[in-house]
Amino acid sequence: MTPDLLEQGAKRYEARLTALDAARLNTEAGGQTASYGRVVQAGEVDVTHGRILYLEDVSVSFDGFKAINKLSLDIAPGELRCIIGPNGAGKTTMMDIITGKTRPDEGTVFFGSTIDLLRHSEPEIAQLGIGRKFQKPTVFEQLTVFENLELALKTDKGVKSSMFFRLDSAHSDRLAEVLHTIHLADSVTRQAGNLSHGQKQWLEIGMLLMQDPKLLLLDEPVAGMTDEETARTAELFLTLKGKHSLMVVEHDMGFIKTISEIVTVLCDGSVLAQGTLEEVQADERVIEVYLGR
Ligand SMILES: Nc1ncnc2c1ncn2[C@@H]1O[C@H](COP(=O)(O)OP(=O)(O)O)[C@@H](O)[C@H]1O
Ligand SMILES: [Mg+2]
């Protein structure tokens, strides 16, 4: 990506911040600017331009149908970005592109300002620090909560090292911390198959957190949850932001209202509107294609 593009992206973001009450955003997003001005270490993502994720003019067609159409979007470090939009808007496909599952026909996808995600495979992208939660929970039902989290540490290791894998103290500390974060500290020995739907979703988020991802992509995380589970998930996400950057796709407007700062509305594979939830809810185009129905 050229420095020009980055500068433009950063400028767009500056403008947005002013419009969105910069003071409020800065406090709520905690670590949003935490990495500014630091020297980048090996294995870290360079966010000195203020973006952890940067998409520019991304398009992909399936059998001639443009599922993603000149999509441009960027996210700040520590930000919790909500994505809404009608079914078929391209939300899941966008996540497929970011995670390397689908290759776009054209466009730019950067992680920080130096990592070109289009040059990396799906497993490499996970290694780089992008975790993804699919719509359905995919925990190992026969294993306990503890074993599921333990296993999440091993996934990037070879079979041999997995067999001889032992939790060291740093890993045990991390596991305890994650258990607490996902509200499952009292359920360590429970079999995952016996958890409620919401608890399974939290466990899967916990498995992602074991890898300490820099960016988390969450596709419809509260679908099928009870109201109470949804409320606890909102709390969970609010504790994660700042430490991680999050991109959350959801249809549940109450949930979005609780967690959102900037909301991006996708439609027909590109950004239709972006702003606070109030702003996009008042947008005639958004009402027409999504909210009004
Ligand atoms: N692998 C694929 N092959 C063909 N069409 C696809 C594929 N993935 C997505 N699509 C189509 O792309 C459009 C966007 O889908 P999707 O990203 O799942 O939307 P959303 O998640 O916003 O509901 C839909 O019309 C869908 O049918
Ligand atoms: Mg989808």
Write the layout of secondary structure elements.
Layout: H1 3-19, H2 22-28, E1 53-62, E2 65-75, E3 80-84, H3 91-98, E4 106-111, E5 115-116, H4 122-128, E6 130-133, H5 145-154, H6 159-163, H7 169-181, H8 197-210, E7 215-219, H9 227-240, E8 245-249, H10 253-259, E9 263-267, E10 270-275, H11 277-281, H12 284-291
Parallel strand pairs: 3-8, 3-9, 6-7, 7-8
Antiparallel strand pairs: 1-2, 1-4, 4-5, 9-10
Helix pairs in contact: 5-8, 7-8, 9-10
Bound molecules: adenosine-5'-diphosphate and magnesium ion.
Adenosine-5'-diphosphate binds at residues 62, 67, 85, 87-93.
Q: Give the strand line-up of the largest sheet.
A: 6-7-8-3-9-10
The residue-averaged pLDDT reads 85
CATH superfamily: P-loop containing nucleotide triphosphate hydrolases
Number of helices: 12
The percentage helix is 25-40%
Could you name the CATH topology? Rossmann fold
The domain tally reads 1
- CATH secondary-structure class: Alpha Beta
Instruction: Please give the radius of gyration in angstroms.
Output: 19 Å
Question: Got a strand count?
Answer: 10
Tell me the distance between the termini: 39 Å
Structural class: alpha/beta
Strand content: 15-25%
CATH architecture: 3-Layer(aba) Sandwich
Bound chemical compounds: adenosine-5'-diphosphate, magnesium ion
What spatial form do the alpha-carbon principal axes imply?
Answer: globular
**Low-confidence regions:** 13-40
Q: Sketch the major β-sheet.
A: 6 strands, mixed
